[in-house]
Amino acid sequence: MKVNSYGTEAKNGRVSTRKNLFLLLMVLPGAIWFVLFKYLPMIGSVIAFKDFKIDRRGFVFSLINSEWVGFENFKYLFASSDAFIIMRNTIGYNGLFIILQVVIPVAFAIGLNEIRSKRFSKIYQTGMIFPYFLSWVVASYFLFSFLSVDKGIMNNMLGFLGKDTVSWYSEPEYWPLILTIMALWKSVGYYTVFYLAAICGIDSTYYESAMIDGAKKIQQIRYITIPLLSPTIVILTLLAIGKIFYADFGLFYQIPRESGVLFPVTNVIDTFVYRGLMKMGDIGMTSAAGLYQSVLGFTLIMVSNLIVRRFDKDQALF
Amino acid sequence: MSQSAFGENSSNFKFTGKKRSPGSVSPVANFILNIIFIVFMALCMLPFILVFIISITDESAIAANGYSFFPEKLGTTAYEYIFKIGDQMLNSFGISAFVTIAGTVTGVAIMTMYAYALFRDGFKYRRFFSFMAIFTILFNGGTVPSYIINTQLLGLKDNVLALILPLCVDAFYIMVLRTFLKSSIHESIIDSAMIDGANELKILVSIVFPMSLPGIATIALFSTLAYWNDWFNALLYIRTEKLFPLQYLLSQVQSEIDFLVRNSSMLGANASDAFKSVPAESSRMAMVFISTLPITLAYPFFQRYFIQGLQVGAVKG
User: Fold this and answer.
1) In A, residues 193-232, which contact B (CB 8 Å cutoff)?
2) At the N or C end, where does chain A have fewer CB atoms within 10 A?
């Protein structure tokens, strides 16, 4: 049995208290931060049930004096035509991203692992995780240099080929594809390197004995690599599903450059809440949308954690 | 044996993979794979290269031919322009650098201390504080209540702290760091130090801290990236142009390049006199290039800890 470091001093209660005090001091700054920036907003989310009006006499005053309106804000939210669109877009895009962010990186990682020159493999990795380090603002400029109506590379090329140019930022039909490409552009390298690390961790004796049994490369991948990767895949996927109601704000806000024509295919819960709050000042409806998102997200993450636990207790979040 | 657990792991997992599954793919397959990855790598890097080329393209060539990988005429007007009237750019660069350094240092200190306390078995309130952190991963109050509390109660409106504090702590990194401590430092080391008469502070500073450096470096890297690339908090809280961080300035310049002129110490009219016309297109791209420069330069360092971080993260979640 492991001896607890405090066991030796258990007889001396005072010393132990002093140590706990020391450790309490250690958590104190973090604990204060959690209270101010996480727990106060949680309590503050009751404003979703209020007709919140900002009062000069301070936040607490405004909170107490705002009238309770029950589920009015939610009714108003769900009555709006946006409610369906933002839910569809959020879940639709995230669902698609979850699938593609497993399939492509796993395929890439397997491929990268088979490349003979390890030096090339390393160069490819270096190149492909680069986008992960850049902000969506920068990515938005990158995209703009291709899609700008009058100066972009795409329209230059279309013009060169004698085709009609496209006014990319006002044609919704292209955007599901563009957003998907951008999401993948930024994340595929990251996940590839992640899965590659997992593949490199697989015991090479599995492959050796498979070779002796005459297994071809494709069989080795099918019967060794993929089964051994699957716990990692399942866990990452379940955790991603737990966050399916949270869209990547930067992707949906910066990349389409605030083009209103595109909102039907680019508006997600997060951008909807932001615009409702900052542009229209609608605290009631946006806080209702936010709370709705948080509650759904909480439920999903609990469920997926439960499932992760059944696969592998150590990998569960708690 | 400092950092033994981690050091061994990372050499096993080294992503270049000295160890390889025996038997190689056929030369044809190898060739095709190389082509696929060259194309994908090019797709990842080309936009960045294009932006750089646009930034050194002469404005007249852009006006005539649009953006191009092979411009007709090169020029450094964009950079001259930015440096001449770019008070705002320099200022934003400073804000970003300050916020990144201050935020990373504060955040990493807070998270390390928190993770350390959770790592100690003997800590009486461990379960409580563990829950306190983990619950924030599961549930959050959402943007609106946060915004209202930060502006109404904490006075973060138009305050440089609004760029630092909200990003300071991430419960997920605390848990990653705690797991890292658990896997790399055995409780018996701490026990023996105690028997030797070391106190808590001494144990933390001279034993735990040096041993957990790789884990801390990883957290610091993610924190640095998050701060440098952040524009969201500026979007919510910052209205004074003096406090704009670089990424937010970039997103504002998207719509109006004269933003730079307006905030220059040279009067707008004088500034445009100095140049025949505002090199709007190339300057914008020059700003994008400059803003990514620190990350590009720190890239080798980033990449190393990034890979380590993936492995630390893989231990838990």
Assistant:
1) 193-194, 196-198, 200-202, 204, 207-208, 211, 217, 220, 232
2) N
